[in-house]
Specification:
mainly beta, 5-stranded antiparallel beta sheet, about 45% strand
């Protein structure tokens, strides 16, 4: 499935600049909203959410099927036509119940939205 896929051991109670496509157990799939769906070369987009849990552990992150490793946040090797995505360290607040991170795309995708 396309989109950002990640495991979060809690319920997302509010999300901005994205929408939840699906949730099965702890696995969420989110995608951009129509107003930020096209990310140009060298550009980035970001979203944030508030979760109903004190833990900020996000695991098993992948974008459009490209998994990120746990150490450096780099995606696994992928075909040249797929842009490289990078994800920043997550920052969060237990008091506010929020978590945010930034995703950068190296170039425009050759793939169009369905």
């Amino acid at each position: 499935m396309d989109g950002l896929i990640f495991d979060y051991p809690g319920e997302i109670v509010n999300i901005c600049n994205a929408r939840i496509v699906s949730r099965v157990g702890d696995r969420y799939v989110v995608e951009n909203m129509p107003y930020n769906a096209n990310v140009g070369a060298g550009s980035s987009t970001e979203f944030g959410f508030q979760g109903a849990r004190t833990s900020s552990d996000i695991t098993t992150v992948s974008i459009n099927g490209d998994a990120f490793d746990d150490a450096g946040g780099e995606p696994a090797p992928h075909p040249a036509h797929v842009p490289k995505a990078s994800i920043s360290d997550a920052t969060g607040s237990e008091e506010g119940g929020s978590l945010s991170f930034r995703i950068d795309l190296s170039s425009a995708s050759e793939q169009t939205s369905p």
